[in-house]
Design goal:
Blueprint (H helix, E strand, L loop, with lengths): L8 H21 L11 H8 L4 H7 L4 H7 L2 H16 L8 E6 L5 E6 H6 L2 E3 L1 E2 L3 H6 L4 E6 L2 E6 L3 E6 L4 E4 L12 E9 L4 E13 L5 E11 L5 E4 L6 E2 L5 E3 L2 E7 L10 E6 L4 E5 L8 E9 L2 E8 L3 E7 L8 E8 L14 E2 L5 E5 L2 E6 L4 E3 L2 E3 L6 E5 L13
Parallel strand pairs: 3-26
Antiparallel strand pairs: 1-2, 1-27, 2-4, 5-6, 6-7, 7-8, 9-10, 10-11, 11-12, 13-15, 14-15, 15-16, 16-17, 18-19, 19-20, 20-21, 22-23, 23-24, 24-25
Length: 407
């Protein structure tokens, strides 16, 4: 077959066909897509409020309008309520986070997902310390958590409020208590719904000479709100001396185990609560524990006030107050048997209850999962958490520890 010359009619027709078709194809590929429909602002808020906090932090870079919306205090409140609801339903994307105080090799905060611990044979635990927080403060312990904020006690002198999700922290002023030999300070942290504010409480306990000779411990109480940012003296309470532990936040109250006047550490303590709205103290009625009680630990379980009651060498009973302030609402949830000598180590108050009914708690510096239905134990492998001094839970939120802070 003879190939046509470039000037031949056959070549020209093919070439013309090629030249005509190229612009048409290019025109088709450059066709402008139809504009996206404009969504009502209410629908955008509804969609975004159902996303995890970490995703929303990234979405603030999408546009100025997104940044303004996601930083708006009303949106943050709406998102917080959605996160609380979804975390209670054990949604994996909104699982609570365990914050672990560890002493190996140095005092550090570490974290992992509750959902991962429950559902995976192994969980990687990561260091939670924020670089700026770590370089600035040497914190002693986690006072507590509320709405995604962690309260850290700093050398019994002041506290830092920190949101690990947004990485924003706020140092509250110094307490200015005059330290004395044998004195100590305990803190509590919670939310006052009446004024929509977060408050920290400090109880300074010190020894003084009594009028009848000898000595006794007395208390000095101060409270600091996030909006006011200064410590105010409030009336002292005469219920006794609080244990050297953080206050447990339940239903707008901070609760402490308190040794009665003239008692000892081995005495049966009472529960005293500070109402964050009224700023007054009140004793809380306890359940009927029965005979043989050896030791008790106060805590919070599923937003209920909780007491872990140990019976020497036998078991630990878990009591919860289903309706705060109502004595008849105390309910024994379950008992946990001891598998070895409980004199040296005790179970912690359970951290949480999984959807299947299993409970997560700490024993002898490691985590244990117990199933009250069949009495079986599981020992989750938590890589990076060889020891646990204390553990707490927090949710991932956009709540800021700064007043009117939108960054």
């Amino acid at each position: 077959m003879v190939t046509p010359f470039p000037s031949s009619p056959t070549y020209k027709r093919r070439n013309d066909h090629h030249n005509l078709s190229a612009p048409e194809n290019e025109k088709k590929t450059k066709k402008t897509p139809p504009p996206l429909p404009s969504l009502p602002n209410e629908l955008i808020i509804e969609i975004l409020s159902r996303l995890p906090a970490k995703s929303l932090i990234q979405f603030r870079c999408v546009s100025k309008s997104f940044k303004s919306l996601i930083s708006d205090p009303e949106f943050i409140k709406t998102h917080l309520e959605k996160v609380k609801t979804l975390s209670k339903s054990h949604h994996p994307d909104f699982s609570q986070t365990i914050v672990i105080s560890s002493s190996e090799p140095l005092f550090k905060l570490k974290s992992c997902s509750v959902h991962s611990v429950c559902n995976n044979p192994e969980t990687d635990v990561v260091i939670l310390d924020d670089y700026s927080l770590k370089d600035t403060y040497s914190y002693d312990w986690v006072v507590g958590s509320c709405d995604g904020l962690l309260c850290l006690g700093i050398e019994q002198d002041f506290v830092v409020l920190w949101n690990p999700t947004t990485r924003i922290f706020n140092r509250l002023p110094d307490l200015r208590f005059s330290k004395k030999s044998g004195s100590y300070t305990v803190f509590g942290f919670g939310y006052d719904s009446r004024v929509d504010d977060y408050k920290a409480l400090a109880i300074f306990c010190f020894c003084t000479k009594s009028v009848h000779g000898g000595s006794r411990y007395v208390n000095r109480i101060k409270v600091c709100s996030l909006k006011d940012r200064h410590w105010r003296r409030v009336d002292d309470f005469e219920y006794g001396i609080p244990y050297d532990v953080s206050g447990k936040h339940v239903n707008g109250n901070l609760c402490w185990p308190v040794i009665p006047e003239g008692g000892s550490m081995e005495s049966m303590w009472s529960i005293v609560a500070f109402d964050l709205a009224e700023e007054t103290f009140k004793e809380v009625v306890q359940p009927e524990y029965g005979e043989g009680v050896y030791d008790r630990v106060l805590g919070v379980l599923q937003e209920w006030l909780c007491v872990m009651c140990n019976y020497l060498g036998v078991r630990a009973d878990v009591w919860v107050m289903k309706e705060y302030g109502v004595g008849d609402s105390w309910t024994k949830m379950f008992s946990i048997p001891y598998l070895d000598d409980p004199v040296r180590f005790h179970y912690s108050v359970p951290l949480c209850i999984f959807s299947g009914g299993e409970v997560l708690l700490e024993y002898n510096s490691v985590f244990v999962i117990y199933n009250p239905k069949d009495g079986n134990f599981r020992y989750p492998i938590m890589n990076g958490a060889s020891s646990c001094l204390e553990a707490d839970l927090y949710i991932q939120s956009l709540v800021s520890p700064m007043v009117d802070c939108h960054e």
